[in-house]
Amino acid sequence: MSSIEFKGVTKAYGKKRALDNITLNLPSNQINCIMGLSGSGKSTLLRHINCLLEPTSGEVWVNGQNLMELNTKALQQFRRKCVSMVFQHFGLLPHLSVIKNIEYGLRVQGVEPKERYKKALYWLNEVGLKDNADSFPQDLSGGMKQRIGIARAFACETPILLMDEPFSALDPITRTGLQTLLLDLQKKWQKTVIFVTHDLDEAQRISDYVVLLDQGKVIQTGTFDDFLTSPATPYVLEFMKSKAE
Ligand SMILES: Nc1ncnc2c1ncn2[C@@H]1O[C@H](COP(=O)(O)OP(=O)(O)OP(=O)(O)O)[C@@H](O)[C@H]1O
Q1: Tens of pLDDT along 133-191?
Q2: Where is the ABC transporter domain (predicted)?
Q3: How many domains are contained in the chain?
């Protein structure tokens, strides 16, 4: 179980409030989709969960710990053992082979070479690329690169996965394939996934729980069906209409 709780979190850049007094509980062991228009605060929210950003006011609690109270060593441990990230543009290291890219997070965690090679091979197989261990990122398609990004994140065995529009750079067919992969892995491993997306179809397909942001505020939370059947405000109704159109 890995609880994530925002308690009255505001993140201000000058007069702009990227997050505006957010209070939110993200359910454990589920895929939580963060939706909203461009600039609504999705990435800012995500980056508070691994302390890449600090709130201007309020608190973020993960697994019963106030992240603001972690000292440097505890924060380093938290980042290594508790959260992994999958990036929109993959974030692979171009000078490292595929297997070394997957091993990278394990190396940072201090896992011994033999053990990390074994784990990396396991995850390479899990994402369907067992024949590509010695390829380099430049030899792979976008979809294959993101499979490696996913393998690297899962290999770290952290309970929380942060995914910032991980499939938005991919064509629709590849994107569907990656969604299926994530759903299959999630069935098996039950991570607490925080998945930022603009795409309503994607959210409908993969989410267990949805958070809709607008101008740094939480407008509605619930299942995707809740959004369709009981939109909380006229704004939500309009937002969901774009799906029907
Ligand atoms: N470092 C920063 N300095 C100033 N303003 C920022 C900074 N980072 C984000 N913002 C502003 O905060 C608001 C929320 O940004 P954020 O990137 O979280 O939105 P988003 O919903 O993830 O957008 P997108 O879908 O376009 O990625 C935006 O108005 C953005 O311009």
Answers
A1: 999 999 999 999 999 999 999 999 999 999 999 999 999 999 999 999 999 999 999 99
A2: 4-240
A3: 1
Q: How remote is the CA of residue 58 from the centroid of ligand 1, in Å?
A: 19
Instruction: Say what the pLDDT of residue 242 is.
Output: 77
Give me the CATH number covering residue 49. 3.40.50.300
Give the integer Cα–Cα distance in Å for 189 and 4: 18
Give me the interface pTM, i.e. the ipTM.
0.97
- Residue identifier of the C-alpha nearest atom 2 of ligand 1: 13
What residues make up the domain containing 48? 2-242
Report the separation in Å between the CA atom of 126 and the middle of ligand 1, taken as the mean of its atom positions.
34
239-218-30-33 Cα dihedral, nearest 10 degrees = 40
How deeply is 38 buried, as exposed, middle or buried, from its count of CB atoms within 10 A (0-12, 13-18, 19+)?
A: exposed
DSSP state of 230: -
Cα distances (Å, whole numbers) of residue 193 to 68, 84, 203, 223, 233? 22, 10, 12, 15, 26
